[in-house]
Amino acid sequence: MTQRDRRAELSESAPSLRRYLGIAALLPLVLAAALFFIRQEASRSEALRVQAAASYERRLEQVRLLSRLKDAETAQRGYLLTSDPAFLEPFEPARRDVAALLRRLDRQSLADVPATYRATVRALVTAKFKELDETIALARGGRAAAAQARVAAGIGKELMDRLRVEIGQRIVDEQRRSVSRTAAFEAQRARVIEIVWTLFALLSLVLLAFLVFLWRVRAQRYRANVAAFESAERNATILNSTVDAILILNPSGTVEIMNAAATHMLGYASDELERRDIATILDIAPGEGSFHKRVGLHDGQLAQSFLPDRRVIHRDGHDVAVDVAMGLMSLPSGDHLVVSLRDISERKRVERVKDDLMSTVSHELRTPLTSIVGALGLLRSGSAGTLPTSAGRLVEIAENNSRRLIRLINDMLDIDRIETGTLRMLREPIDLRLTIEQAGLGSQGLAGTRAIRVASHLPDQPVMVMGDADRLLQVMTNLMSNAIRAAPPGSKVDLFVENDDRDCAVVTVADRGPGVPAGFRDRIFGRFERAEQSDGTVGTGLGLAISREIVTRHDGRIWFEDRPGGGTCFRFTIPLTGNIAAADQAAPCILVCSNDEVLTESLCALVIEEGCVFEVATNAEDARACLAHRHYAALIVDFKLPPRGGLSFARTVREARTAAGTSVMVVTTDTLPDGDGPSPLDVVDWINKPAETERLAEALRAALSRTRPRRPVVLHLDDDRDLLKIVSAALEPEAQIVTATDLPSARALLHDVRPDAVILDLHLEGADGRDLIPFLVDEDGLAIPTVIFSAQDVTEETAAQVDAVLVKARGSIPDLKATLRRILRPRLEEEPAA
After folding, report:
1. In a 3-state reduction of DSSP, which class is residue 717?
2. Which CATH class name applies to 20-214?
3. Which CATH architecture has domain 713-829?
4. Which of 77-86, 180-189, 500-509, 652-661 has the lowest mean pLDDT?
5. CATH H superfamily, domain 244-343
6. Buried/exposed code over 21-44 (b: 16+ C-beta within 10 A; e: otherwise)
């Protein structure tokens, strides 16, 4: 499973807030529904209880009604028997009570008290009280006998009997209904209790399940925390025990974690680099755009995971040589970068010692070998007398092997020059056809020993390039030697040169050998990388490495391809004269005036070493024509320049307006005659010695310093002191840097220093860098060129007030340097040269 798959799986298993909110909302709804159901059941049980109680009350009312009627009848009988009015005192209260009971009976529902029962009871009660009232009235009227007779007639007794029957039947019915409702109430109450206990059991189970789940979650979390702690401890131990410095960068390119080795290497504590851009110490992501885009991360893959021989910046400002290895760590928060820094300072020191030793030994061997080759050549030519045939063959073998040893030493010296950056490379117009033809002719001897035919396929028109003919011949010789050794005896090696669609000359050397072995293809252009040739011999492993460096110095590239039909094609490109590198065109141009080829070659090599380009004039007339069409930073004039000598030409140049302000140096390989010393000129006695070469170089640098513009002053405002140091170190050779860390200091500096340009950070601690913009004007009231170099994007309104905007971590230091050059060039070109 890939890191991306693990990351997707981890994202799918992440806790869902929506799911948890849904569960959290569902639980109260379930509890509310359960409580509502219990409440409904309780209400139903309460209704049954109320109905049972009401039935009991209704029975009591019926009994009370019958009792009060009996009280009224008793009062009547007592009065009739005794004629004592005191017996009638309970009569009226009984009547009122009966009337009240009848009204309550009327208010009861028909379901509880049928209408027929109400009508019957009311009619009987009315008839009973009528009978009572009539008998009492007869007794009061003195007709006691009639009243008693009426009572004896049994009408009242009949009415009471009927009432007892009706009411008794009703009481029996109510009792039966009451028993039924009481039973229903008991059953309902039992059901409610059962439901409550069931819900209690369910809630207990849910609570128990929740507690078990919570315990398992806590247990898993504890185990995960223990595992994470152990893993973190293991990782921290591994991280801090490794000898390589390791930094972990977040997706934005800032430092998250650094190990103890990084602290030791960089001099920073971990909290000092935390959340700071990696560009503070190491430039691994140049250009524009996001950090992942700049570092070359596409589709989860790094375009380049190993960056050899880089420099990191120590806290105190010095550089540390490192090899950088990068790896990807995919986390849910994004793709993090693991950067490993291996200190190669000791390795570099050992390489320097080795290179110094190799250079010393090589130089010490060249002189005696030159003498040996010269002596052998004299012997072979017969200068010391005619040699026997066998002795001549031995001398020839010794001479060839001595020359081979010289070539090896030359290759080693070239490698040394490549490593130290001192490999000299001329730039002059040459016809590439001549170089290829010369290489073909020079290879005939080696080709003849193997019966190999060399065929050159050259165009009719010149193939003009700017280059070093000797160095390009060296490339061709290396390629031809490899091709001849790889080709089978009796075969052919072809040489081609043609123009491609990118204004470059393409040179091809094709053989018909077995091809480059698969295991050797990736390292074929490396130093000391050797493969066994078809004849069983092996080379030094330096030829192709030197060839690649020479071609690269000519702004070209070299590669190899399989030849159709078998064999290998080595190809390299050189820009045609119309496609010369812009960097060379922008460099100071020196006019070399000499018709001495050896001296011209040496002078041109010196000019190139000083970072300049050159043009050559072989006589005074050509030199004047060059001066009429172009301004030169300096002139180097040969003392013997035809037709009348270099001194005469130099005085003419000094008097001419076209070359006003141009430094002139006169060089000579001879001792100057007395009285001819050119006092107003820069004269250097040219002797082919390193010390005198350095004198000429110093004179050239002094001459250039008088024609180059002054060094501009740049004010840099930023509250990051480390960044101030980095920018100062990068710009110091080209500009004088004045730094400030806050607005008051910057304003104070502007009173004393008028900078040619300003680098401005907008986001300062406790302040806004925009507040300085109104003060950025020169003595003429013109705005000073300003570059915003800030960690955040700026608004269009702010960008319109300045000359350029670069964003930190996206705009690199080289971008800043290029921007300053662009905005300063017009300002400096308006000033006269110092």
Report:
1. strand
2. mainly alpha
3. 3-Layer(aba) Sandwich (3.40)
4. 652-661
5. PAS domain (3.30.450.20)
6. eeeeeeeeeeeeebeeeeeebeeb
Lowest-confidence pick of 473-487, 678-692, 740-754: 678-692
Model confidence at 584, in pLDDT bands (50, 70, 90)? Answer: very low
The correct CATH number of 348-419 out of 3.40.50.720, 2.60.120.290, 1.10.287.130, 1.10.10.10 is 1.10.287.130
The CATH fold of domain 424-578: Heat Shock Protein 90 (3.30.565)
Please report the DSSP string for 29-83 in residue order.
HHHHHHHHHHHHHHHHHHHHHHHHHHHHHHHHHHHHHHHHHHHHHHHHHHHHHH-
Ranges of CATH 3.40.50.2300 domains, the chain: 589-707, 713-829
Q: How far apart are CA 825 and CA 755, in angstroms?
A: 14
- What's the angle, vertex CA 823, arms to CA 821 and CA 825, rounded to 5? 60
Q: How far is Cα 131 from Cα 125, in angstroms, rounded to an integer?
A: 10
Determine the Cα–Cα distance for residues 786 and 806; give it in Å rounded to an integer: 11
Q: What pLDDT does residue 583 have?
A: 38
Pair 408, 481: CB distance under 8 Å: no
Provide CB contacts within 8 A for 758, sequence distance 6+.
714, 715, 716, 717, 772, 776, 784, 785, 786, 787
Q: Cβ(572)–Cβ(557) under 8 Å?
A: yes
Strand partners of residue 668:
685
- Per-residue pLDDT at 560: 92
Task: Kindly report whether the global pTM for this prediction surpasses the value 0.70.
Answer: no
Percent of the chain with pLDDT over 70: 80
Q: Where in the chain is the domain with CATH 3.30.450.20?
A: 244-343
Contact call for residues 758 and 715 (beta carbons, < 8 A): yes
Q: Are 638 and 594 in contact (CB under 8 A)?
A: yes
pLDDT in the model for residue 809: 46
Could you tell me the CA-to-CA distances from 325 to 286, 345, 574 in Å, in that order? 16, 16, 33
